[in-house]
TrEMBL record:
<feature type="transmembrane region" description="Helical">
    <location>
        <begin position="239"/>
        <end position="264"/>
    </location>
</feature>
<dbReference type="GO" id="GO:0005886">
    <property type="term" value="C:plasma membrane"/>
</dbReference>
<dbReference type="Pfam" id="PF02133">
    <property type="entry name" value="Transp_cyt_pur"/>
</dbReference>
<feature type="transmembrane region" description="Helical">
    <location>
        <begin position="41"/>
        <end position="67"/>
    </location>
</feature>
<feature type="transmembrane region" description="Helical">
    <location>
        <begin position="342"/>
        <end position="366"/>
    </location>
</feature>
<feature type="transmembrane region" description="Helical">
    <location>
        <begin position="150"/>
        <end position="169"/>
    </location>
</feature>
<dbReference type="InterPro" id="IPR045225">
    <property type="entry name" value="Uracil/uridine/allantoin_perm"/>
</dbReference>
<feature type="transmembrane region" description="Helical">
    <location>
        <begin position="79"/>
        <end position="103"/>
    </location>
</feature>
<keyword id="KW-0812">Transmembrane</keyword>
<keyword id="KW-1133">Transmembrane helix</keyword>
<feature type="transmembrane region" description="Helical">
    <location>
        <begin position="317"/>
        <end position="336"/>
    </location>
</feature>
<dbReference type="InterPro" id="IPR001248">
    <property type="entry name" value="Pur-cyt_permease"/>
</dbReference>
<feature type="transmembrane region" description="Helical">
    <location>
        <begin position="12"/>
        <end position="35"/>
    </location>
</feature>
<feature type="transmembrane region" description="Helical">
    <location>
        <begin position="386"/>
        <end position="407"/>
    </location>
</feature>
<feature type="transmembrane region" description="Helical">
    <location>
        <begin position="115"/>
        <end position="138"/>
    </location>
</feature>
<dbReference type="GO" id="GO:0015205">
    <property type="term" value="F:nucleobase transmembrane transporter activity"/>
</dbReference>
<keyword id="KW-0472">Membrane</keyword>
């Protein structure tokens, strides 16, 4: 259901702390480790900043759907894909998020196993995996506020321990005779260097492409001022988290991964730490890994996946059931076997999902001008029913954009976004919406179809959505309404 203004509880600082917790993710080490194989650390850092800031901007742009209307990703996807069609790309996104949950939980469980091994000579990482997964899923099932409280606790600890980790690995690299700012394993020049630089940018964008698509599922809980027409002021809190907090934290994680590879020729963080430290210090660093994976998984992976699965399952499949479904899927894919293919997977995943980001951009900004007939989003046979529940313009654009990104892997996100957006715009505007008229396009009235910009909350009455400024006169059948 649309989140009303009174339930938007996360401020700029709270969202930044959530992002710090989300972005401290060990898989990002692989980007740094792979990057310094062909580029110096300085160039890897620059590429990471560019890629992270760019994907953060995309997140904020798409996240306005949640800020403005309080809508989640799978609900808004009914507009470009149809009331039934929305489930196909949504489930793919949910599956990807579940896989990430499994990967991050695996890292956390090996770290937890390391701590228990130091303290009690205990060695059973799979039991740690089950316990760690259950703890995260319960935390997420308790709701968004519980996640923010955990991020408030975890983020400062993670920052302090990350700084210590960087110092330790830097000293280890110097002991091996490798200067972290100049050492490159297999340096390249010319066109090969440009390609390597772009791959680092696209890897960082692909890393968060899943969240770029469904940012509305989180942004709908972010505080924003009513009656604010300035896009930047309305999305101020979102910008702080998506661009500033993400870029700084992601860059730091990539640096640690790069330094780890320079020092130890290994960017698997658990293995690297076990070689670089011991005793109490190793236990503290492994604790950082546990906290990092927990704070990342809850916000970045479990919430989006659970929201999607709950939407697909309908009223009889509540959010908490979606949470545990995500955990089950993330486990049965055996995430302990996925880490070695993470870079190519990031580029492909980024390309496929970037086409969806492009479609959302074209639908929300270019065609609907941010106006949404929210009322019909919750109707089975409203304007978003299209052809038996499917918007063919969305599916064609997704296939074309995803295919183009797949064959141009090094530029996957940019290609997927542009091709998806352009294809959808022309197909929808000149073909599909000529057959299936859209009320907010035919009559782009701000008072009817904007949300927080005109001070409106959308609320549900008998499975129909009506603006908060509307009084329900007859709630039997289709609601009859009259304005205050």
């Amino acid at each position: 259901m649309p989140v009303p203004h009174s339930d938007k509880t996360i401020g700029a600082l709270g969202f930044a702390l959530i992002w710090i917790g989300m972005a401290v993710v060990l898989a990002a080490f692989a980007i740094g480790g792979a990057g310094v194989q062909h580029l110096s650390l300085g160039w890897v850092i620059l590429a990471t900043i560019i890629g992270s800031a760019a994907i953060g901007l995309f997140m904020t742009i798409i996240g306005d759907i949640g800020i403005e209307h309080g809508l989640s990703f799978p609900v808004y996807m009914r507009a470009p894909f149809g009331t039934i069609g929305t489930h196909i790309p949504s489930v793919i996104r949910g599956f990807a998020a579940s896989c990430w949950f499994g990967i991050n939980t695996y890292f956390g469980s090996t770290a937890m196993n390391g701590i228990l091994n130091i303290l009690f000579d205990f060695d059973n990482w799979f039991l740690c995996y089950i316990i760690f997964a259950a703890a995260q899923l319960i935390n997420t099932a308790l709701g968004i506020k519980a996640i923010e409280r955990f991020a408030d606790l975890a983020a400062p600890v993670i920052i302090i321990i990350s700084a210590w980790m960087y110092t330790t690995l830097s000293e280890k690299a110097l002991e091996e005779g490798r200067h972290i700012w100049s050492w490159v394993e297999n340096p390249v020049t010319g066109r090969a260097a440009i390609t390597a630089f772009i791959v680092v940018i696209m890897s960082n964008m692909g890393f968060w492409s899943t969240l770029a698509a469904d940012m509305p599922s989180i942004s709908r809980f972010i505080k924003a001022p009513k009656y604010e027409k300035n896009w930047f002021k309305r999305n101020k809190a979102s910008l702080v988290g998506n661009i500033l907090a993400l870029t700084v934290t992601q860059t730091f994680m990539v640096i640690i991964g790069a330094v780890s590879y320079i020092a130890l020729k290994n960017y698997d963080p658990v293995v690297a730490l076990q070689e670089a430290a011991s005793g109490f210090i190793l236990g503290v660093l492994l604790l950082m890994i546990v906290l990092a994976q927990w704070s990342t998984n809850t916000s970045a992976n479990v919430i989006p996946a659970a929201t999607i699965f709950s939407n697909v399952g309908g009223p009889k499949f509540p959010f908490w059931a979606g949470v545990f479904a995500a955990g089950f899927i993330g486990t049965i894919v055996q995430p302990w076997s996925l880490f070695n293919i993470i870079i190519p997977a990031l580029l492909i995943c980024g390309g496929v999902l970037s086409a969806i980001v492009g479609i959302l951009f074209a639908d929300y900004y270019l065609l609907r001008k941010r106006r949404v007939n929210v009322y019909d989003l919750y109707k089975e046979y409203g304007q978003f029913r299209y052809l038996n529940g499917f918007n063919l313009a969305g599916f064609i654009a997704w296939i074309v954009g995803g295919t183009a990104a797949y064959f141009l892997t090094n530029y996957s996100f940019v290609v997927g976004f542009l091709v998806g957006a352009v294809c959808y715009y022309f197909l929808a505007k000149y073909w599909w919406f000529q057959k299936y008229k859209q009320a907010e396009i035919e009559d782009p009235n701000e008072e009817k179809y904007l949300g927080i910009t005109v001070g409106r909350d959308w609320r549900i009455e008998d499975n129909d959505v009506v603006p908060s400024s509307v009084v329900v006169v007859n709630t039997s059948g289709n609601a009859n309404v009259s304005l205050d």
